Amino acid sequence: MAILRMIGRKQISLAGLEITLDATLERDDANGQLYVRVEGSAGADAISERISIGAEDGKDALATMSAAERTATLQAAVDNARQAIANKIANRALNQAAAAQVR
After folding, report:
1. By the 8 A CB rule, do 37 and 23 touch?
2. Residue 36, CB half-sphere, CA atoms under 13 Å: how many?
3. Spatial contact of 11 and 83, defined as CB atoms under 8 Å apart
4. Contact (CB, 8 A) for 40 and 85
């Protein structure tokens, strides 16, 4: 997997945590498939998710879209992935705090 470029970094405050979210554009060296990888971290906890772009399943839904539609679609997918990762990290922290109180 080759990283083509850093898309951006966001910081989100959630459940008392400062969560860092990085998004990168990557290409599979074997088949050329493009992906957006979103990685989130807070302290030692980290989660990574990969979103395929284009025709991984043989049906390229983006092919018929205008450039503006592609950008909007990909932006929404990255934003949704960032929020989902932040929620997972926050939930892990809340679960760990609750588990620490169990006697």
Report:
1. yes
2. 21
3. no
4. yes
> Residue 96 burial (CB < 10 Å; 0-12/13-18/19+)?
exposed
Three-state secondary structure readout of 5-67: EEEEEEEEEECCEEEEEEEEEEECCCCCCEEEEEEEEECCEEEEEEEEECCCCCCCCCCCCCH
Q: What is the pLDDT of residues 58-74, one digit of tens each?
A: 666 677 889 999 889 88
| Segment 26-54, tens digit of pLDDT | 988 888 888 999 999 998 899 999 988 87
- Report the alpha-carbon distance of residue 45 to residue 89 in Å, rounded: 7
Q: pTM here?
A: 0.81
Alpha carbons 4 and 34: distance in angstroms, whole number: 9
